Amino acid sequence: MAQLLRVQCFNVSRDGFGTGEGQSLERPFGHADPTPLFSWRAATASFVYRTEPGGTRGLDDYLTRDAECNIGAEIMGRNKFGPQRGPWKDHEWQGWWGDNPPFHTPVFVLTHHVRPSFSLSDTTFHFRDVSPAEALAEAKQAADGRDVRLGGGVATIREFIEADLVDTMHIAVAPVDLERGERLWGSPDELLDRFHLESVPSPSGVTHLLFWRR
User: Cys-Cys with 169: which of 131, 139, 188, 211 at CB 3.0–4.6 Å?
Assistant: First the structure.
């Protein structure tokens, strides 16, 4: 079967923003409070950071589990990896996720300022200054037959959509407006020339948008 490039469990606000304005080390989502964007996923039984028994089942939990299914590599932009801009001042920063990142695969970080690869637990981060198509080709090879997840952020997802490389997307729309920041779309209808779309409301209050290539 063909390897897919998948966007999974990516969260946006009702007005289309994936993150707020003014990202920093202390505020990874800028001015935006991330809780309304992510609370649906954090409440599920399968949430990766859950430390206690319990959690919801049903649609939200199914989509949370599906985000990890058959993923062999990840691609992300530098702004998802961390808040630094420009040349690396040092190599001590190793991402937001601590000593055991949740990826458990090779991760390809797109940046104009490359640095040496490093591993944390079973995740290895590689830094590449390449085109989307080149990054995807390397990620597919590293994925060893499994799919590749496109983790974000917004600018990276848009770049891969514009390059016509994305096969499927799951976008969770939270019932909150951010008003400014990095915007994925004015309306999801903007993507209907490239994708089929189904909209599935959840009891948690989010609406799950499922896109697949035409």
Answer: 211
